[in-house]
């Protein structure tokens, strides 16, 4: 296997091992050279098709996909031609992220399993691509309601109608997100349906954070033809209480300031939970438990790259997921038995 010695810090742009402090930022040789060429040759790049707001995921295995987003990330992380101080990466600053990919060697010290790291990055990239594609489908579904008259929620029946529009869109989002993930295809159809159904409300909270940087949860619901005073909607029966609990869950998760990539991996963790009811334990348990381990590793690797408090943040995420599971347990069966059709979303 290809292995790198431990003791390197990460490139702030793509997450590869940094070779030094270049143009004001710890970066790898590839990103250093890319930035230098761009500045010296005064190159300009075609704007990203995804737009400036979301952009592309820049990782070692995808950094050459979009030069525009790569340069934008160079600038966003603080690269500057005026900041030319160079230096080797000190050992004491080695990142915890590489510790996630250690393997034992015959020399009795730890090395980094690059094959494992690359496979993890490839999985993250695929999950994020599927997450973004599903969001485009979700947006398309909301357009049909935006053309109609917007109403104000005034009674319990209004909240039920709103949920009858919102929840099928979330089912559609989850289905599109899941269907392109190779591990999901290996699961029998009955269990696939159970995984989507059982994870529905938890994924709804995580998904809303994708839009929540530009609007509030109430504004997301406005896309479905109703204006909601979210803090007062608990007076409108069980569906109003459900929307209020969703709002509070979104607000708690928002405080953790997760990236779109981290949200997509979290959504995959929820989707592949191995302890959902109705699964064929003999067919699926090993695959789902294996995916749970892989996705935990993937999420930790992203936290280590993007946040200073990796371990504390992961602990908070586990607490959030437990809380979401509790909320789902309160409302899911009520919703499934309420004559809201969450299956036919075409």
TrEMBL record:
InterPro entries: NHR-like_dom_sf, Nucl_hrmn_rcpt_lig-bd, Nuclear_hormone_rcpt_NR1, Nuclear_hrmn_rcpt, Znf_hrmn_rcpt, Znf_NHR/GATA. Keywords: DNA-binding, Metal-binding, Nucleus, Receptor, Transcription, Transcription regulation, Zinc, Zinc-finger. It comes from the Eukaryota. GO terms for biological process: cell differentiation; hormone-mediated signaling pathway; negative regulation of transcription by RNA polymerase II; positive regulation of transcription by RNA polymerase II. Pfam families: Hormone_recep (PF00104), zf-C4 (PF00105). Its main location: nucleus. Signal peptide: none annotated. SUPFAM superfamilies: Glucocorticoid receptor-like (DNA-binding domain), Nuclear receptor ligand-binding domain. It is found in: Nucleus. GO terms for cellular component: nucleus. Residues 119-346 form the NR LBD domain. GO terms for molecular function: nuclear receptor activity; RNA polymerase II cis-regulatory region sequence-specific DNA binding; zinc ion binding. The keyword Cytoplasm does not apply. Residues 8-86 form the Nuclear receptor domain. Belongs to the nuclear hormone receptor family. This is Nuclear receptor subfamily 1 group D member 3. It comes from Mytilus galloprovincialis (Mediterranean mussel). The lineage of its organism: Eukaryota, Metazoa, Spiralia, Lophotrochozoa, Mollusca.
């Amino acid at each position: 296997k290809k292995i790198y010695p431990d003791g390197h810090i990460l490139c702030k742009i793509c997450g590869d091992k940094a070779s030094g402090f270049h143009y004001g930022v710890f970066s790898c040789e590839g990103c250093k050279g890319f930035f230098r060429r761009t500045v010296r040759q005064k190159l300009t790049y075609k704007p990203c098709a995804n737009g400036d707001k979301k952009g592309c995921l820049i990782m070692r295995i995808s950094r050459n996909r979009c030069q525009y987003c790569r340069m934008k990330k160079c600038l966003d992380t603080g690269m500057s031609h005026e900041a030319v101080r160079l230096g080797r990466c000190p050992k004491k600053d080695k990142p915890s992220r590489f510790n996630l990919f250690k393997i034992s060697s015959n020399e009795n010290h730890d090395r980094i399993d690059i094959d494992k790291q690359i496979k993890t990055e490839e999985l993250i990239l695929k999950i994020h691509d599927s997450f973004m594609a599903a969001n485009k489908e979700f947006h398309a579904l909301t357009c049909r309601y935006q053309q109609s008259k917007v109403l104000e929620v005034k009674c319990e029946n209004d909240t039920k109608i709103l949920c009858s529009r919102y929840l099928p869109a979330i089912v559609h989002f989850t289905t599109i997100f899941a269907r392109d993930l190779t591990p999901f295809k290996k699961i029998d159809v009955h269990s696939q349906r159970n995984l989507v159904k059982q994870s529905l409300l938890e994924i709804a909270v995580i998904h809303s954070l994708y839009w929540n940087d530009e609007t509030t949860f109430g504004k997301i619901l406005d896309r479905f033809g109703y204006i909601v005073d979210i803090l007062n909607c608990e007076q409108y029966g069980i569906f109003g209480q459900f929307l209020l609990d969703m709002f509070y869950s979104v607000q708690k998760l928002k405080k953790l300031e997760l990236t779109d990539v981290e949200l997509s991996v979290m959504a995959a963790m929820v989707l592949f939970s191995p302890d959902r009811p109705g699964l064929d334990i003999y067919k699926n348990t090993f695959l789902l438990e294996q995916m749970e381990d892989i996705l935990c590793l993937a999420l930790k690797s992203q936290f280590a790259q993007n946040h200073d408090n990796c371990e504390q943040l992961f602990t908070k995420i586990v607490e959030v997921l437990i809380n979401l599971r509790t909320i789902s347990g309160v409302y899911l069966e009520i919703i499934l038995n309420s004559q809201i059709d969450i299956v036919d979303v075409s």
